[in-house]
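Observation: inputs received (chain + zinc ion).
Thought: call the complex predictor directly.
Action: predict_structure
Action Input:
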Amino acid sequence: MIQDIYPSKYHNEYRPEAAPAASSPVLCFEADKVFLKESEEGVLKIPVFSDIGGDPRYAFAIDDTEYFLRKGVPEDREDLKAFNIRRLRRSGKMTNVEMFAIFTAYHLAIWYHSTKFCGRCSSELTHHKSMRAMVCPSCGLEVFPRLNPAVIVGVINSGRLLVTKYNRPDADFYALVAGFVEIGETLEDACRREVMEETGVSIKNIRHYKSQPWGIAGDLLCGFFCELEGSDVIKMDAGELKVAQWVTPEEVVLQPDDFSLTCEMMRMFKEGKI
Ligand SMILES: [Zn+2]
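Observation:
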């Protein structure tokens, strides 16, 4: 999965005093594109501070490498090109560590970009001195990076798995039932509700599998396996899905990369490990 960067290690401690070295990678985004350096041979690299400049803010470290975020787009730099992050994910041109850094930095960049004013009194927010947070100098409101908790549910019924495809033109690959956790729910409640809403079936024996940060959507995904309870007749929510069906391990078609928790869960089922 995208966060599986072992033997490298992600360090999330907040270090507002950290300053970039010339060789520090600096991530800079414009909408859903990231600026990268492309060599004549087509090799892509995250630019370093001496490439991209600006006044970047510390983001996180992976091993001893400190990553920074640059506000504002570099101008007139022919050696830097903007690449769509979703297409980059499928390109196979970046390492797992680089893709994890890009997804995670994007999550932070979007949050900083959309967290400029106090939602309570409208004053301009400033950076908190010691925590990764924004704070209102007028009313004291503290705003922390936003995570959207969501569940992914692998429903198993007598050796078959419930797979779906989202009702979107770009949803070419199989997925599992998934959705956001709502206020007042447990994660298990969200599993039961999402499976019922999207496919009309009931579930039991809900057990946690793994979780995953998915920075490109600002999500924290929690994966669960469970069993069907009662009727296996699917009543698909056609507004949300274009496919909902029971498949055998042989029939599971995996996504082309192994970044997502959804794909890992389908692979575990396909390989008979669940
Ligand atoms: Zn305020």
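Thought: report the result.
Final Answer: The chain has three domains: 10-113, 115-145, 148-270. The CA atoms of residues 122 and 170 lie 38 Å apart.
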